[in-house]
C-alpha cells in the first residue's frame, strides 16, 4: 500500500484516492461519487472534518456467512460516534489527512526519502499547489525507485506518514491514529455491495488470518496509539475510545470462551450442577427467554418476519435447512456465465467442507469436541461419581444438552473426526487432543 501511495503521489498527488485491497474489486461504479459527496460537504470545523469513507466488507460467494449483523449494527454504531473504523477492504476514499507545515529540503528528504520528484510533489501539496500537467512516461524511473520496499528505510514512511507499521493490523492502527488527531470518518452502507472480495480457501488459511487479526489488534492495544492511554493528549472521544477497546480485545475473548466450552463437560463429568435447581431455575428460563427474544428482534430488524424466523428454526431442527461453515478461495477463478461480471460459486461438491492441517490452531477445537463427547458418553452410561459426598444435586439432562450444544457449535471439527485427507483432522492433532482430553477427564472425575 505504501508503494502505491508513493507512486500515486509522484504521478498525480491528487487530494483524494481510492484504496482497494488485493482480494477486493469495485462492484458499484457509483462509489466514487458517493464518497466525494461526503468529502465535499461543507464542515463547520475545518480541522475536524471527514478523513476517510468506509464501505462494508462483502463477498461474492453467496454461500459464505456474511457479516450482516456486524456491518448493519456494530459498524453503524461506530459511525454515529466519531466515525467508522478503517477496516481495509472496501475502503472508499482518503483525503490528505495529516496536514503539515511547510518543511525545508532537508526535512523533506529525511521524512519522504531521496527522490527529488516526490519531494517536489510533497512540497506542492503542503503549499496547496496543484501539480502541472505531468507527462507520466517521464516519471517511470522515479516511480520504480519510490515503488521499491527499501526506499522507505530511514524515512518516516510507516511511522508518521501513510499506513502505520506498528502492528500487523495496520488498518485499525492507522484508523485510531487518525481519530486521535480529532478527525472523523463516514460509513456508507449501500443497497448494492460497493466492493466485493473473496475469503481464504479453507481452515488453515482462515485460522492464520484470524490469528493475525487477533494479535495485530492486541499489538495496537498496548502500543503508543492505545485507547487506554493518552486520555488527555488524544482527541479521541470517550465513546469512540470504548469502541476501539471493544474491537482490540476481540482476541482476548477466546480465553473465557474456551472456559465456557469446557464448563458443561466438567460439570457432567464431575456430576455437579451447572444451572440452578428448583425455584432458581426461573433465572435460567428468564435468561434463555431474553436471548430468544433478542435473537427474534435481530431477525426481524434485518427485514424478516416472525413467521419466517419460526419456519427457519423448524427447518434447521428437521435438517431441511442447515448452517454451513464455508470459507471460499481468495482467487478469482470463475465468472458468472463466462461474462466477466465477477466471480461465481464453484460447482465443487466439497466446497462446503472445512479443511484441516497439522497446525496447532486446530488443537483447541478438537480438544473441546473430544472432551464434550466423552462427557456425553459418560453421562449416557452412568459413569459419574456419587453426588452425596459433594452435597447438593448432581448434573442432569440440562448439562448434557449444554454439551450437545457445544459439540454442534463445533460441527466442522466433529465432521473432521470422520473425514479423510485434507477434510479430516490429522492424526498428530487428534493424538495431542486425545491426550489432553484424557487428562481433563481424569482431573474432572477425580477432583
From TrEMBL:
Organism: Brassica napus (Rape)
BP-aspect Gene Ontology terms: cell wall organization; cellulose biosynthetic process
Compartments, as annotated in UniProt: Endomembrane system
Protein name: BnaA04g28960D protein
GO annotation, cellular component aspect: endomembrane system; membrane
Keywords: Cell wall biogenesis/degradation, Glycosyltransferase, Membrane, Transferase, Transmembrane, Transmembrane helix
Transmembrane regions: 360-383, 389-411, 423-445
Gene designation: BnaA04g28960D
Domain of life: Eukaryota
PANTHER family, per the entry: X-BOX TRANSCRIPTION FACTOR-RELATED
Organism ancestry: Eukaryota, Viridiplantae, Streptophyta, Embryophyta, Tracheophyta
InterPro entries from the UniProt entry: Cellulose_synth
GO molecular function: cellulose synthase (UDP-forming) activity
Amino acid at each position: 500500500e505504501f508503494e502505491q501511495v508513493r507512486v500515486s503521489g509522484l504521478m498525480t498527488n491528487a487530494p483524494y484516492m481510492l484504496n482497494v485491497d488485493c482480494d477486493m474489486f469495485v462492484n458499484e461504479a457509483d462509489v466514487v461519487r458517493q464518497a466525494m459527496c461526503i468529502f465535499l460537504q461543507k464542515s463547520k470545523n475545518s480541522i475536524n472534518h471527514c478523513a476517510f469513507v468506509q464501505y462494508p466488507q462483502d463477498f461474492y460467494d453467496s454461500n459464505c456467512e456474511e457479516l450482516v449483523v456486524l456491518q448493519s449494527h456494530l459498524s453503524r454504531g461506530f459511525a454515529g460516534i466519531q466515525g467508522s473504523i478503517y477496516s481495509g477492504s472496501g475502503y472508499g476514499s482518503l483525503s490528505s489527512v495529516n496536514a503539515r507545515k511547510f518543511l525545508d529540503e532537508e526535512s523533506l528528504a529525511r521524512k519522504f526519502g531521496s527522490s527529488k520528484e516526490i519531494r517536489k510533489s510533497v512540497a506542492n501539496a503542503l503549499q496547496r499547489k496543484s501539480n502541472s500537467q505531468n507527462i507520466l512516461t517521464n516519471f517511470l524511473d522515479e516511480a520504480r525507485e519510490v515503488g521499491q520496499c527499501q526506499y522507505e528505510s530511514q524515512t518516516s514512511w510507516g511511522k508518521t506518514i501513510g499506513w502505520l507499521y506498528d502492528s500487523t493490523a495496520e488498518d485499525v492502527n492507522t484508523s485510531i491514529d487518525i481519530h486521535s488527531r480529532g478527525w472523523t470518518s463516514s460509513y456508507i452502507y449501500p443497497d448494492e455491495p460497493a466492493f466485493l472480495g473473496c475469503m481464504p480457501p479453507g481452515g488453515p488459511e482462515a485460522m492464520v488470518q484470524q490469528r493475525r487479526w487477533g494479535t495485530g489488534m492486541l499489538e495496537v492495544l498496548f502500543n503508543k496509539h492505545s485507547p487506554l492511554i493518552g486520555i488527555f493528549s488524544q482527541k479521541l472521544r470517550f465513546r469512540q475510545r470504548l469502541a476501539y477497546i471493544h474491537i482490540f480485545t476481540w482476541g482476548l475473548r477466546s480465553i473465557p470462551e474456551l472456559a465456557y466450552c469446557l464448563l458443561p463437560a466438567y460439570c457432567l463429568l464431575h456430576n455437579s450442577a451447572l444451572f440452578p435447581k428448583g425455584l432458581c431455575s426461573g433465572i435460567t428460563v428468564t435468561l434463555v427467554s431474553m436471548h430468544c427474544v433478542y435473537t427474534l428482534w435481530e431477525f426481524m430488524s434485518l427485514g424478516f418476519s416472525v413467521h419466517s424466523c419460526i419456519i427457519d428454526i423448524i427447518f434447521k431442527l428437521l435438517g431441511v435447512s442447515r448452517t454451513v461453515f464455508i470459507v471460499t478461495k481468495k482467487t478469482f477463478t470463475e465468472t458468472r456465465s463466462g461474462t466477466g461480471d465477477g466471480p461465481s460459486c464453484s460447482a465443487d461438491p466439497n466446497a462446503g467442507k472445512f479443511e484441516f492441517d497439522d497446525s496447532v490452531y486446530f488443537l483447541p477445537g478438537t480438544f473441546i469436541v473430544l472432551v464434550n463427547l466423552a462427557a456425553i458418553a459418560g453421562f449416557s452410561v452412568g459413569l459419574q461419581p456419587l453426588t452425596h459426598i459433594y452435597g447438593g444435586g448432581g448434573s442432569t439432562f440440562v448439562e448434557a444438552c449444554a454439551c450437545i450444544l457445544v459439540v454442534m457449535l463445533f460441527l466442522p471439527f466433529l465432521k473432521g473426526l470422520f473425514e479423510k485427507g485434507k477434510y479430516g483432522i490429522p492424526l498428530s492433532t487428534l493424538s495431542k487432543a486425545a491426550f489432553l482430553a484424557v487428562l481433563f477427564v481424569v482431573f474432572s472425575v477425580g477432583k
